[in-house]
Amino acid sequence: MEGGILLKFLLFTILVFVAIGHTNGQLRKDFYKSSCPQAEQIVQNITWKRVASNSTLPAKLLRMHFHDCFVRGCDGSVLIDSTANNSAEKAAIPNLSLGGFDVIDEIKTALENTCQGVVSCADILTLAARDSVSFQFKKPMWEVVTGRRDGRISKSSEALSEIPSPFFNFTSLKQSFANKSFTVHDLVVLSGGHTIGVGHCNLFSNRLYNFTGKGDSDPSLNSTYVTFLKTKCQSLSDNTTTVEMDPGSSLTFDNNYFSVLKQQKGLFQSDAALLTNQGAKNIVDEMLIAGKFFTEFSQSMKRMGAIGVLTGSNGEIRKKCNVVN
Ligand code: HEM
Ligand SMILES: *[C@@H]1O[C@H](CO)[C@@H](O)[C@H](O)[C@H]1NC(C)=O
Ligand SMILES: *[C@@H]1O[C@H](CO)[C@@H](O)[C@H](O)[C@H]1NC(C)=O
Ligand SMILES: *[C@@H]1O[C@H](CO)[C@@H](O)[C@H](O)[C@H]1NC(C)=O
Ligand SMILES: *[C@@H]1O[C@H](CO)[C@@H](O)[C@H](O)[C@H]1NC(C)=O
Ligand SMILES: *[C@@H]1O[C@H](CO)[C@@H](O)[C@H](O)[C@H]1NC(C)=O
Ligand SMILES: *[C@@H]1O[C@H](CO)[C@@H](O)[C@H](O)[C@H]1NC(C)=O
Ligand SMILES: *[C@@H]1O[C@H](CO)[C@@H](O)[C@H](O)[C@H]1NC(C)=O
Ligand SMILES: *[C@@H]1O[C@H](CO)[C@@H](O)[C@H](O)[C@H]1NC(C)=O
Ligand SMILES: CC(=O)N[C@H]1CO[C@H](CO)[C@@H](O)[C@@H]1O
């Protein structure tokens, strides 16, 4: 009797595990271990090779990954080209300066040559973003679990509504992140991504020339820095010049962004907004300790990489990253 119940229980447990294994393909470490053992090494090799000859790429790939994950989840939808009847995410204004698509294409080509139809573009982007930032350290800076599948939909209208604007105040930033179940802690920590890369003048020059419509500058922006920025961005309409977001170390991934913020030199209103809320401000202070920032950034990135992912039999493995199959 007893043995019969135990056996039934064991069988039931096994069935449940088998069912979970089949239906809910969660992301996991080294998903391609048996299907494409060299996948992650190939991504790292090509990414490192490209970053070695172009140090602006980590910023491009990190931002592209953020944009991918915030619109329809990390499903590679940011990589899809517009077609005659669809305006894709790439065509949205916030995407104007996205770059690094050629790196993803080179990796995809190499992976298709090694193990055809196995590795998703969504995973390639997630790994390449991590590896590009990690090149400087010669070791992976955060864990990436894999098994994402590619989406088939990409809409510019969704990029416009889901990607936070550089003109957002704290309330709107918080709401935009809460929309993805992200906390104020994630918001502050991930904003640290602005420790690398550049921003275009027209996205902040209102803070220099006409903040309240009286030809004034933003009082929350360091006045010494305003003078400097005016030499870079000479008019309100300049949409071609770029400025480093972390002046002096915009090619180095570190926690200097937070020191910059504290000196009231955050480039965008959305950066400066992190000091307008006491809770957020306290987190900015915590991030002034480098070790703390690296640990927290690594954890928030892992969570960002899991937003709305397609797994198991959902989505597809795109043959080319810029077009759906
Ligand atoms: C908190 C809300 C955020 C806002 C409002 C925002 C806004 C922006 C804007 C306006 C730019 C400049 C684009 C240009 O002029 O070319 C930019 C650049 C960048 N962002 Fe963000 N961003 C946010 C969060 C993030 C997050 C979470 C990450 C990644 C973890 C990130 C990574 C980057 C990087 C690396 C660049 C530099 C890109 C380059 O050099 O081309 N941003 N961001
Ligand atoms: C990656 O690069 C290393 C060092 O250059 C090389 O030894 C290795 O064979 C490469 N692996 C793959 C899978 O490309
Ligand atoms: C887009 O338009 C083409 C013809 O211009 C048509 O063949 C195709 O089915 C359309 N695709 C969708 C998704 O509507
Ligand atoms: C580096 O990469 C960026 C982004 O793809 C590109 O715009 C730029 O032209 C590249 N620079 C060089 C020197 O190749
Ligand atoms: C923040 O921006 C939103 C949208 O523009 C606005 O409705 C709200 O009043 C602003 N909040 C503060 C505290 O300024
Ligand atoms: C939150 O998400 C909804 C739908 O997904 C979207 O319409 C709305 O614009 C988002 N709000 C913000 C602040 O991003
Ligand atoms: C500054 O803003 C005010 C009010 O919006 C506008 O009337 C004025 O033309 C602007 N000045 C410049 C130089 O754009
Ligand atoms: C920059 O501004 C000019 C003039 O207003 C406009 O024609 C052009 O499309 C803009 N370029 C970008 C990249 O926004
Ligand atoms: C503004 O910038 C100057 C020069 O970089 C710096 O010495 C000063 O401390 C900054 N002001 C504030 C309020 O942080
Ligand atoms: C990289 C990219 O696709 N950029 C596009 C951004 O949007 C403009 C239109 O608003 C397109 O012309 C760019 O090609």
Automatic annotation (TrEMBL):
Ca(2+) 1 binds at D68, V71, G73, D75, S77, E89. The active site is at H67 (proton acceptor). Its cofactor is Ca(2+); heme b. It is an enzyme of class 1 (oxidoreductase). It catalyses: 2 a phenolic donor + H2O2 = 2 a phenolic radical donor + 2 H2O. Its EC number is 1.11.1.7. Ca(2+) 2 binds at T195, D246, D254. One of its GO terms (cellular component) is plant-type cell wall. Keywords: Calcium, Disulfide bond, Glycoprotein, Heme, Hydrogen peroxide, Iron, Metal-binding, Oxidoreductase, Peroxidase, Secreted, Signal. Binds 2 calcium ions per subunit. The record marks R63 as: Transition state stabilizer. InterPro entries: Haem_peroxidase, Haem_peroxidase_sf, Peroxidase_pln, Peroxidases_heam-ligand_BS, Secretory_peroxidase. It is found in: Secreted. PANTHER family: PEROXIDASE 25-RELATED. Removal of H(2)O(2), oxidation of toxic reductants, biosynthesis and degradation of lignin, suberization, auxin catabolism, response to environmental stresses such as wounding, pathogen attack and oxidative stress. These functions might be dependent on each isozyme/isoform in each plant tissue. Belongs to the peroxidase family. Ascorbate peroxidase subfamily. This is Peroxidase. It comes from Solanum tuberosum.
